[in-house]
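Problem 12. The chain below contains 341 residues. Write out its predicted structure in C-alpha cell notation.
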Amino acid sequence: MDSPPSVQKAWIVKRRGHPRDALALETIPIPALEPGFVLVKIEAAALNPAGYKMMELIPNILVQRPHVAEFDFTGTIADRNGTHFNNGDKVFGMIWSEKKRQGSLAEYAMAKVEAVALRPDNLSLEQAAGLALVGQTVWQALFDVAQVEAGQSVFVNGGSSSVGLVAIQLLKAKNCIVGTSCSLKNFDLVKRLGADHVFDYKAKPLEEQLSDNPPSPKYHVFLDAVGGNNALYTHSEAFLAPKGVYIYLGGGLRNVSDIFKEIVGAFKGFILPTWLGGTNRAYKFVQVKSSQGSLQHLCEYVKQGKLTPPVDSVFAFKDALEAYDRILSGRATGKVVVTIP
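Solution.
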C-alpha cells in the first residue's frame, strides 16, 4: 500500500465543553511511531459516551488538550512498525486519547499493539468500528470482575444501550438467565437478543419493580450500564443474591452535580457498615483496560455468530458534529459510527 502522507484531517478536542463548542476539524501531522505501536489508516470510528463526557466534565488541567477525539476504530495497518501485524491487515481496536493526544476520529492514528486485533471477516466496517471499547468493558465486567458462570442469573440495567445489547448477547451465549430494563418501544429489540425478563423503567422506579418482583433465585450479578440512580444499589438486597455483585460502569454522569451525587451515594451504600445504613452487597466499579485476551474472546464470539455489535446510525466524517447530536439525544440503540474516507 502507499506510504502515509505527512499530514491528516482530524477532529480535535480544543477545550472543555459540549462537542459543538469543544471540537474543531483541523489538519495535523501524522503521528511519529514509537516502539510497540502501529499506524492505522482509520476507515471508521464509533462515538462513545465517555468521549463527550470527558469533553464536558474534565477540566483542561486533568487532560492533555488539544487531543484527537474518541477511542474506537477499525481500519488498515499502514505501518506495522516491526510488530506481528502486516501492512494492509484489516484491524479494529481502541485508543485512549489522553495518553498521547491520540484518538480515533482522524484519518490516521497510532495505536498500541496490545489494543489492536485482526477484524473478523463476518463483521461489517460499521460493526467493527464500535466493538473494542464496549465489548471489552462488558467482557471484563461480567467475566473478569464478576466471574459470571454459565446458567447464572444476571440483570442488565440499560438493555437497549450499546453496553446492554452486547451484554445480553454474551450472557445468552453463556446460557445465562437475563433480566433487563429499557423503554417499552425497545422491548422487542432486547427480547430478540434473548432477554428473558424485561422491565419498563418508565412504569415506576426500577428499584421498586425489582424489589416487588425479585427473581428466584435472586440475581447473581447486577450490571448497571445507566447509572444516576443510587437507589438501585441501596435496594439491591431485595433482588441480588447474598454473594451477588453490583457492577457500576460509570454511566449517568453529565455534570459535576452528578459526580457529587454518585460519590455521596457510594459512601452511603457500600462504605458505611450495614448497621449504619450501608448495603450488604458487593459493589464494583469497572474501568476498561484493553488487552489481547479480551479482544480475542470477543473475536471468537463474533466468528461463531454469537455476538453482533449493534449499530444505530452512520455519519460521514465531515458530519461528526451531527453524529454527536445523535448520541447525545439518548435515543441511540447501538453505536453511532463515523466513516472516514
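Discussion. Residues 252-260 have pLDDT under 50 and may be disordered. Students who got a different answer should revisit the alignment rule from Section 12.3.
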